[in-house]
Design goal:
DUF6191, 2 strands, transmembrane, mainly alpha, elongated, transmembrane helix, DUF6191 domain-containing protein
């Protein structure tokens, strides 16, 4: 009978709240050593069920985790340099296009 309750939407919400409470309790006592919260994932999936925008956000998050992130991405090559130790930044702007 309990399975039938948790197979419904209100039952799922109750189950997620119980899991969230247990998760927070374990983290407060020091037994939960992980950084993320298990309950947050469940609530995000429940939110995505009712919101198409949230579904797109979760898809974008998944694809961003799979993409390679290089340190040199984002800055034009050999134009700008930043010396953090010396406290100096050099920015070279591209020359303006010549009018014909």
């Amino acid at each position: 009978m309990e399975f039938v309750v948790f197979a419904t939407l209100p039952g799922l919400v109750i189950l997620l709240v119980v899991i969230a409470f247990g998760d927070q309790l374990l983290r407060a006592t020091g037994r939960g050593k992980r950084r993320g919260q298990v309950s947050a994932t469940g609530f995000e999936q429940l939110h995505a069920t009712f919101s198409a925008g949230k579904q797109n956000e979760l898809k974008e998050r998944r694809s961003a985790l799979l993409m390679k992130d290089d340190e040199e991405d984002g800055a034009p090559p050999h134009r700008s340099t930043v010396d953090l130790d010396g406290g100096r930044a050099v920015v070279r702007l591209p020359s303006p296009p010549k009018a014909s």
